[in-house]
Amino acid sequence: MLRALSVENFRGLETFSMANLGRINLLVGTNNCGKTSILEAIHLLSTRGDASSLWSVLGRRGESLEGALSSRDDLEADICHLFHGHQLTPGKFFSIQGKNDALSEALVATIVEANDSGDSDRPNAAEIRQKALAFDDAEVGLPSRLALAIRWQRETIPIGEQLLLLSRQGGMRSSAAERATRRRGREDEDKPIQLITTASLTRHEVMRLFDDIVLGPEERVLVEALRIIEPTIERIAAIGSRQLYSLGARGGFVIICQGSTQRIPIGSMGDGIWRMLGIVLSLMRVPNGTLLVDEIDTGLHYTVLANMWKVVLETAKRLNVQVFATTHSRDCYESLAEISRPQVVDKNEVSIQRIERDRKEAVAYSEQEIVIAAESGIEVR
Fold first, then answer.
1. Distance between alpha carbon 71 and the CA centroid of its chain, in Å?
2. 82 touches 54 (CB < 8 A)
3. Which bin fits 374, alpha (ψ -120 to 50), beta or left (φ > 0)?
4. Which of 27, 138, 166, 237 is the most exposed place for a label (fewest CB within 10 A)?
5. What confidence tens digit (pLDDT) does each residue in 42-89 have?
6. Which CB contacts under 8 angstroms, 24+ apart, belong to 101-108?
7. 160 vs 39, more confident
């Protein structure tokens, strides 16, 4: 479980750190203070800078490279926005370091020159072209000025490195990310991670997650969670019809409520049902891993937030999942206080981390402090 995080030169965070992290961590703060960047940093750290993770981080924000020569099926992302200052120059880097109970691990991504041939600590052009994961073999020999060197280390010992040759425009192509991920493979010790954005999961993602729990004991847990929003729900089912599955962003599911045999499309039940469905399914997908949720209270009325937190905490404890979520809502953190305990023996369950623009450290509130703040009407956002 991640206990502390430090970030340097990533996104808008020049230097930043968080400590005293628990099982449930709620990040609060004003707009554009860096909450989403912190979720992205945790995502990249957990996946060890996997190229597909880099691509998804850029793609979610629509950071495409303007004027790129890529085809419609091979989009190109502008990686400069991963770096503080939005510039791609040799030597520019960002680092993400995490500490758990036993050790520290770090991800360091550095811009290097493809024609560098003198520095033994920096790969030269031949090494980059030999190891490059960015292009088809026929394209590797094309002149490229820059590459991205991604290094993973445990404590101070390097564990692995991959080199990603950038396009001549300084971007990363979608095909490059896919190829890099295939060649890298997955480490046995990589832990599962899931990120839910403010837009929630797509119907394809939800269908895939639902397939893993259907007709099992976790399906009952899911129905109980959905009853937080609509108490009359009795069953939920996926529809096999391709036509229905293709309709709308929230197609593919129906529910049955008490006293009725009519199947109701889940999309007609409102945003809260879909949000809760995605959160609970995602928790079940990442046992012994990490769940990241941006604006966790999106679509949820304040009256259901305490029950939502109860489900999240109980499921996270049972499956050994660590949760990081963001919010702007006072109702959201006060609802977290409702399920917290004023007298705490184990201080590793719940924390609030207040993120302030231009402040290098988050202000951490323990579970006991969260309860006191809520009871006293103290503002912690």
1. 28
2. yes
3. alpha
4. 138
5. 999 999 888 888 988 988 888 887 655 555 556 788 899 999 999 888
6. 101/1, 101/3, 103/154, 103/155, 104/154, 104/155, 105/45, 105/152, 105/153, 105/154, 105/155, 106/152, 106/153, 106/154, 107/44, 107/45, 107/48, 107/49, 107/150, 107/151, 107/152, 108/150, 108/151, 108/153
7. 39
